[in-house]
Amino acid sequence: MKTRIITAVVGLGILAVVLAFFDTILFDLVLAAVCLLGIHEVFSAMGFGKKQWYLYAAAAPITLLMMLSSSEGVRALLLPAGFLTVLFYNICLIANSKTLDFGKLSGFLYFGGVIIFCFYSLIHLKRCLPMDTYGYDAIFFILLILCFAWGGDTSAYFAGRAFGKHKLAPVVSPNKTVEGAIGGVLGSIVLGLVATLLYSIPTGRLTTLTVSVTVRHYLIIVAVGAVASVLGILGDLFASAVKRQAGIKDYGTIFPGHGGILDRFDSVMFIAPFVSIVVRYFFYFVQ
Question: How far is 140 from 99, CA to CA, in rounded Å?
Answer without folding.
Answer: 47
